[in-house]
């Protein structure tokens, strides 16, 4: 049996890159400890299975040293004010998959002579966040009155996403890599990202964040599209300091877009207990209590000490994350890949312009019957 010469330190690097410890993999690879010590060598088949288990391209394991993996988009994430240095494989693979979908849709838009999305790159960080927020509300028809008619955060987020898609944005919300439910996306690593493009603007939202947090992330990433910039973000509603002026600006736009100060002041009751006010205003604006708190601070209704105390209490209630998985398979698939993208891809495939193999991979399906059912769900003629 032929063994493969592989550097032990590359095996250790690949395992740690995937966030796995030795004991998690020993059940599948009993000789892994000996491989990592250089005492034994794996077969090619064993090495292929190991590469799949740690989500690393097989070719990386034949390099003389681990590659320096760089994020393909600007990284605006921070932890305690410091930049995050190493992207995880789930994050990298998610960005690469979205870039593939975006590239496909851009070519589709060009070939079908679809117009550019005019608001992409229409603003600068020198523009007033209030003015840009008004433009966003006009573009998406997402007024307070329309939100009042939504029964909760989930319906409001669905309506918000639908309006963004109707305006030309590919909105993808998922808590896993592709359709692999074993590869969960960690909201502590990132909340979302934007891929700016005048023909195929794309926003990805981490579906393992809370539903209310996704509302703010979607608004924040859309603000990046207004600037015409791609970016990876982890900033929530907190009015915290950042070294990135662009992130501060996008947060201000998102906050004003979701909770305009003029409307907040009209709805706010000075005599109402703060806890009751947070619940009531959250239901009106369809945002989390964290966003309401931030806007009350912006409006001068809370001093910093009272804000910090209330923020700590509210944060304790948001420890439980909610996943976007489960539910109806077809609806979940549409949410993960963007209804606009799915519809275009299925039309192109049925017309013979795109291979079924490629369509199946990008949609995350494996059967023709499933593909056809998805097509009928979005109104594509078979």
From TrEMBL:
Domain IrrE N-terminal-like, residue spans: 164-296
Name assigned to this protein: ImmA/IrrE family metallo-endopeptidase
Pfam families in alphabetical order: Peptidase_M78
Coiled-coil residue windows: none
PANTHER family attached to this UniProt entry: ANTITOXIN HIGA1, BLL0069 PROTEIN
InterPro entries tied to this protein: IrrE_HExxH, Rad_response_metalloprotease
